[in-house]
Amino acid sequence: MSHATAADGTRIWYDTLGEGEPLLLVHGQSLDHTMWNGVAEGLARRHRVVRMDLRGTGDSDAPVDEPYTMDLLARDALAVLDDLGVGRAHVYGFSMGGKVAQTLAATSPGRIGALILGSTAPGGTHEVERPREASLALRKANTEEGRGLIAHLFYTPAWADAHPDTVATIVPRNPLRAQRRHYEASLRHDGWDLLPAITAPTLVLHGEDDELTPAANAKLLAERIPGARLSLLPGVRHGYPHEAAPGATREVLDFLAEHPLSG
To answer: Counting beta carbons within 10 angstroms of the beta carbon of residue 246, is it exposed (0 to 12), middle (13 to 18) or buried (19 or more)?
Structure first.
C-alpha cells in the first residue's frame, strides 16, 4: 500500500496485486477500493491490478475547498501510474469511475491500453436519467433505509441479502462534504464531445436491469466511442461485477487478452 501525490499535494492511496500488464481499477461515486473485493483477485490472475481510492474516499486525502471534476480525478489516476513508473495501463472504470476513465482515455490516450466501462454513462444532457426513486435512494444512502434501497438497486434482492459483506462495500463511508463533491462532479460532467476522441479499444459492460444507471446509457457509449464493443448482462443490476462473476470477470480478461499493451 502506498500514496501518490497529486499536483495540488493531495495524497492518493493505491495498492497492487498480481503480475502482468497493469490494470487500473477506478471505483464508483463515494465508494473506495473495497468495492473491487473479490473482483480484483480474479483480474489479478493475469494482470498487475492497481486499486486506488479517489480523492475524498478511503485512505486518500479528502480536500473539499475546491470542486471535484472528472479531469481532476483523471489527473489523480495519472499520479498513481506515475508513482508506480507505469507508462501505459489498461483502465477499468465503474459507474462514476467510468466517467473518470472516459476522461482519462480521451485526454491522455498515450497512457491507456484497453478501456473497460462498467455501469456508466456519458453525462450531460445525453445521459439517460435514472428513475426518481433511484435518485431518492442515493440521497438517503447514509440512512438505514437508504442502505437497504441501495443494496437492492445494486443487486437482485436475494443476492444482496445473501452477501452482506459485499453490500457493505457499496455503501458510502466517506465524509459527507466529500460525498457532495463526488455527487456534484458526476452531476456536472458532460463527456459527450470527448467520446469520439477515445482511440483505446473499449468494452462497455452493463447489467440489463440497472436502474441506478439505466442500460440505455451503455448503448449510447458504445455508439459514440469508435469501435466500442457492447455487452449487456441479463438478469443483473448496477453491481454486475459481483453478481455476474465469474462470467463478467472472464469477459474483461478475454477482452484485455485481445488487446495487449504490446499490440
So the answer is: exposed
The continuous run of DSSP H or E covering 182 comes out as helix 176-188
CA distances from 194 to 24, 87, 99 (A): 20, 22, 11
Q: Which residues pair with 91 in a beta bridge?
A: 24, 115
Q: 143: burial class by Cβ within 10 Å (0-12, 13-18, 19+)?
A: exposed
Reading the chain (263 residues) residue by residue, the pLDDT tens digits are 799 999 999 999 999 999 999 999 999 999 999 999 999 999 999 999 999 999 999 999 999 999 999 999 999 999 999 999 999 999 999 999 999 999 999 999 999 999 999 999 999 999 999 988 888 777 777 777 778 888 999 999 999 999 999 999 998 989 999 999 999 999 999 999 999 999 999 999 999 999 999 999 999 999 999 999 999 999 999 999 999 999 999 999 999 999 999 86
Phi, psi of 190 (to 5 degrees): -135, 100
| Residues whose CB falls within 8 Å of the CB of residue 114, separated by 6 or more in sequence, listed in order | 90, 91, 200, 201, 202, 203, 255, 256, 258, 259
Q: pTM higher than 0.85 for the full model? A: yes
Q: How many residues does the chain have?
A: 263
Q: Which DSSP helix (H) or strand (E) runs through 147?
A: helix 144-154
Whether residue 93 contacts residue 117, with contact meaning beta carbons closer than 8 Å, is answered with: yes
- Cα 161 to Cα 15: distance, rounded to the nearest angstrom: 29
Sequence-distant (≥ 6) Cβ neighbours of residue 51 within 8 angstroms: 14, 15, 16, 17, 25, 27, 33, 36, 40
